[in-house]
Amino acid sequence: MKSILLKLTLMLGCVGLGPFAWSDQSSEQSAIRQMVRAYVDAYNRHDADAVAQLWSPEAVYTDPDSGEQVVGRDAIRAEFAATFREIKDVRLSVITESIEFVSPNVAIEKGSATLLQQDSVSESTHYSAVYVKRDGRWLLDRVSEVVTERPSSGYEGLKELEWLIGSWIDDDDQATVVTTCNWTKNRTFMTRMFSISVGDNVDFAGMQIIGWDAADKTIRSWVFDSDGGFGQGMWHRQGEAWHIRLVGTLPDGTRSSSTNTMRRVDDDTFTWQAVDRTVAGELLPNVDEIVVNRRDVNE
């Protein structure tokens, strides 16, 4: 299958020509942005005819993986039709980063495109598109792109935890715990940076890495803290609850263990509890269940 980017590629362009300026540039930029929206809408309706009509009759698309060119509106229509038959649940999202004019009838758009399948990223690219103005309409004429992200096989094992992405907070009158979770490149791993603050001072901090173990078909995690402690965990799901069995080494070399349970309540809330806690073989009290909320990014 040709790169799905052809489909995402709605609009970028890059040639080695300098920008051109004239008085009506703003209205023409608006026209190109409107064309981009029309392209995305046609793509997400899986309407190959409508998509093809937004390309010039002599348009050329270059596949970023193979270097193969799809030449002409009819060939592009056939390419989209085949793609839409093969993948029925794919949606396109694009961001235009810049539009420059080589002349009143030639423009270059650059941006990023993301292909979504079942609400998860299938592929992301940076693209460059050359537009030509024909009979008062802006049409795609040349498109090239570079793939910036393809989810790894590990993503399939981790996507059940995708709801954790973002910033979370738990606070009371004694301390504030802030955790921020992000994907690494290609969604191979998840990283969770955490800090515990008392007043205005960060008292404790650390990092957790979560990954998919393809050999054992399970999720594993590794944690490192600012005091020098470290540990690893194995994750198992039961309904909306994740049970993480942790074993660790404290800064002085003492062994520790616990079972943590994270239970998803909704998109913005989960609960956390630690039980079966031991240090040096001695049983410690359980940590009562606490509620953790998604943090407002503007805070």
UniProtKB/TrEMBL annotation:
It comes from Crateriforma conspicua. Residues 32-140 form the DUF4440 domain. InterPro entries: DUF4440 (IPR027843), NTF2-like_dom_sf (IPR032710), Steroid_delta5-4_isomerase (IPR011944). It holds the Pfam family DUF4440. This is SnoaL-like domain protein. Keywords: Signal. Residues 1-23 form the signal peptide. Gene3D superfamilies: 3.10.450.50. NCBIfam families: SgcJ/EcaC family oxidoreductase. It comes from the Bacteria.
